[in-house]
């Protein structure tokens, strides 16, 4: 029963405090009550914290969009995070593109120029996908997590203490208002001294003034203590900025590593594709191929017109070889495994003899190495002078 009485009294006291704060807040808004202003330093700290919170949220959200453009995937990751479960691993866009290219190249045939190029492009796209995955993981750990910890941890604590400071200020100003009213009433009562009743009123208001002064001292002390607590928390924003600066450096380093890897992958791919001879075409067609070196003629390609490092070529060397009916020495560019007994397996950098056979497909020549003969794909060969 005593516990119940205590709870009722506490509830009544809390309700009274809440009502007092509501009245004070309303009167301040209406300009009917004075408001205790915070000192300039504390106001600056509060403004700095609010600004930090707003921009941290914007940077964090946009970084998440940058790392994961798919909004559905972001929602799924958010749900798994709130459930404290690991999100299932999914193939990313570069990896998916790479797999499609590899499958297409295998279908078209690794022995064809287009099929071989697709396979090499697909492998590079997969490596880029792996690098992209590493960038996301590193950025999430070293950049996004600290920003999120600030928003969901440090700033929530600051907001809680800031709200408590606001309540203490309302209590302080309400106490000031009550003291002001009590003193005004006491003054009016002292001016009326004609009757005993009025004397009783003077005593009542004097007691009310004393009570209000004591309440003001208590609320002032609580306000000052809360202001100091809030100030100490807010001064930690400078340390937060320093920490976020280190995290930003980590994010930049992760991006630098990612883009450097992608550049190197594409540079290697460009070199591989640039060494492909351009005669995956019929005699009445033209194709785009890299510029051949000055020391050798790539089979089936002679430069006609250059555009951004590429040239439009025609199969003149191949036509000459077919028309003369003779043989030429050729260097093997890539390893090639014969698909059947009519073809000749090749090893990169070996030199073989090649010649044309009437009626043979334009994509093939007859190759000869010692006593071995067989068809060889012209895209794997480079004619020697």
Summarize the structure.
This protein is of the alpha+beta class and 385 residues long. The protein has eight helices and nine strands. The strands form two sheets. The chain has a six-stranded antiparallel sheet, with helices on one face.
Could you list some keywords that capture this structure?
single chain, 385 residues, alpha+beta, six-stranded antiparallel sheet, three-stranded antiparallel sheet, 8 helices
Description:
The chain has 385 residues and is of the alpha+beta class. Helix content is 65%, strand content 11%. It has a six-stranded antiparallel β-sheet with strand order 2-9-5-6-7-8, with helices on one face. Strand 7 and strand 8 form a beta hairpin. Helix 2 (40-67) packs antiparallel against helix 5 (113-191) and helix 5 packs antiparallel against helix 7 (237-274). The chain starts with a helix and ends with a strand.
């Amino acid at each position: 029963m005593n516990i119940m009485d205590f709870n009722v009294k506490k509830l009544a006291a809390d309700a009274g405090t809440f009502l007092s704060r509501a009245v004070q807040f309303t009167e301040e808004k209406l300009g009917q009550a004075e408001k205790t202003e915070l000192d300039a330093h504390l106001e600056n700290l509060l403004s700095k914290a609010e600004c930090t919170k707003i921009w941290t949220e914007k940077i964090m959200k946009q970084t998440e969009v940058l790392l994961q453009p798919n909004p559905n995937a972001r929602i799924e990751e958010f749900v798994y995070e709130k459930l404290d479960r690991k999100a299932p691993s999914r193939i990313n866009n570069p990896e998916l593109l790479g797999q499609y290219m590899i499958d297409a190249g295998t279908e078209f045939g690794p022995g064809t120029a287009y099929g071989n190029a697709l396979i090499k492009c697909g492998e590079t796209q997969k490596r880029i996908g792996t690098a992209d995955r590493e960038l996301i993981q590193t950025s999430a750990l070293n950049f996004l997590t600290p920003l999120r910890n600030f928003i969901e941890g440090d700033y929530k604590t600051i907001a809680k203490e800031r709200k408590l400071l606001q309540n203490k200020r309302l209590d302080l100003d309400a106490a000031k208002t009550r003291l002001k009213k009590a003193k005004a009433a006491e003054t009016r009562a002292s001016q009326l001294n004609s009757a005993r009743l009025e004397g009783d009123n003077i005593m009542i208001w004097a007691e009310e003034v004393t009570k209000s002064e004591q309440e003001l001292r208590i609320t002032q002390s609580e306000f000052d203590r809360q202001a100091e607590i809030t100030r100490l928390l807010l001064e930690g924003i400078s340390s937060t900025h320093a920490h976020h600066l280190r995290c930003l450096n980590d994010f930049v380093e992760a991006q630098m590593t990612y883009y450097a890897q992608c550049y190197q992958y594409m540079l290697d791919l460009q070199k591989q594709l640039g060494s492909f001879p351009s005669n995956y075409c019929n005699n009445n067609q033209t194709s785009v191929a890299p510029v051949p070196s000055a020391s050798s003629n790539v089979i089936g390609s002679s430069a006609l017109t250059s555009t951004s490092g590429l040239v439009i070529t025609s199969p003149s060397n191949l036509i000459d070889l077919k028309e003369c009916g003779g043989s030429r020495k050729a260097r093997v560019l890539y390893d090639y495994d014969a698909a059947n007994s009519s073809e000749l397996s090749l090893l990169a950098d070996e030199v073989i003899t090649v010649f044309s056979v009437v009626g043979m497909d334009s994509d093939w020549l007859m190759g000869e190495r010692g006593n071995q003969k067989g068809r060889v794909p012209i895209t794997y060969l480079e004619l020697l002078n």
